[in-house]
Amino acid sequence: MLKGKTIGAVIPAYNEEALIGRVIETMPDLVDRIVIIDDCSKDRTADIVAAYASQRPDRVILLRHGQNEGVGGAIANGYKWCRDHNLDVAVVMAGDAQMDPEDLPALLEPVLNNEVDYCKGNRLISGEAWEQIPRIRYLGNAALSMLTKIASGYWHVADSQTGYTAINRRALHTIDWDHMYKRYGQPNDLLVRLNVFNFRVRDVEIKPIYGIGEKSGVKPLRMIPKLSRLLLRLFLWRMKEKYIIRDFHPLVLFYALSFLLLFFSIPLGIRLFWMWWSTGNIPPINALALLFVWVVGVQTLFFAMWFDMEYNRHLQ
Fold it and tell me: Is residue 2 situated within a structural domain?
């Protein structure tokens, strides 16, 4: 407990027998409940957690999945447990000890002070990130962070894939956790849902931790295309929910016009290239049409982004 608020740590775990004990033993005393969700592990993860739970049943809670639901599904069930037991704040930490417990107070402070509803760690702020995070994961994270800014409307946050987060009671009771994305796109999905309900979000610097024996199942080159499709779907859902159904804002028209113009610039560009290839000449009117459509499309897209950024500025 901190500042009179009850705190629960949600820990998704899949085949984490090597490090789950370290996570439990290093958990700060300010955490009242350690909710570990064993996502149908094939190793001794559940047995190890059960041993700790038998010693501290008032603090260590083990939830077992009958089938693997993915990290997002495990986090969602942990959130629901914290919601149903009326905890004030739920913190997500990994089961592979990649999240430094010393960063926890800084992550909790804005939420406990009611400055924000959701606080997330950011490993990219630190100058150590480039040296410690594997290059391919760093670059993939940076690319997904940029796409998540556009999809979520939280233009001031980065490191979208970090799972080190803290969420308050109001958000816990507002979000429909049964519809949360169940795999590695869960942090992106949650940011979009938080934005639709106008929850305040903030980044806090945390230390990146690698090389302690953790095993990641993330394949960045495979994940980026998959998560890009997810982010496009989430972006369109947010436009509909936030700017059409709940309130109307002309930025949706700017986005629609920009997408339309940029789409039509593709066949115009192909036609221009084909004419140059087949005849050796480029008709000036065709080149002018392509330039006009492309420039107006890009400019309209930037206007839409700027409108979105200004509309969500108060959520920082």
Answer: no
Tens digit of pLDDT for each residue in 159-192? 888 889 999 999 999 999 999 999 888 999 999 9
Structure-token pair, residue 118: 């959701």
For residues 126-133, give the mean pLDDT. Answer: 65
| pTM for the full predicted model | 0.89
Residues 68 and 200 in one domain: yes
What's the token pair of residue 14? 């899949």
Contact in structure between 81 and 35 (CB atoms under 8 Å): yes
Q: Which helix (H) or strand (E) holds 108?
A: helix 104-112
Q: How far apart are alpha carbons 302 and 8 in whole angstroms?
A: 41
Query: How many angstroms separate the CA atoms of 26 and 229, rounded?
Result: 38
> Residue 312 CB: number of other CB atoms within 10 A?
18
Domain with 301, as residue range(s), is 249-315
DSSP state of 281: -
